[in-house]
Design goal:
Blueprint lengths: L17 H29 L20 H19 L2 E2 L7 E2 L2 H11 L19 H5 L19
Antiparallel strand pairs: 1-2
Amino acid sequence: MPIEEHIPYVPEPAGVDTPVVLWCALGALFLVFGAIGGLYAVYDYDVPIKTVPLPKEFPQPRVVAGEADTAELHRLAAAQSRRLDTWRWANDGHTLVQIPIERAMKLLVQKGGDAYAPLSTPQGALNSPTAGAQNAITPAAPANSGNPQPEQQP
């Protein structure tokens, strides 16, 4: 096709009314700014306090170091040392024993690489869908039910 046969470029179709488009754009801007102003008015009404409170000075601690404080410190340290260095029952049922920390460390050193191994070996995972049924305990059927008992496999 020759270039002359094309429709010449027109930047704006003749059917577009420029004042109507401008008034619509102006109305949309008016609605946006009106919504922003309305939301600001609601915020201003609901949150009236706008000043940040002044920082307060905390009072200095009133700790007086004296002989009473050091005596308390020594008493607490001695009680903690006693708990770490003595044998005692760790529960009321007398089933759990607390041993001295030095003895516990020696026991861990004796175990070597297995020191943090689990105390009991975990059961193996079920490897087939019927493994759980094989391990289950089922009650025996009554003798007079007429149902034959399955044969036990060794």
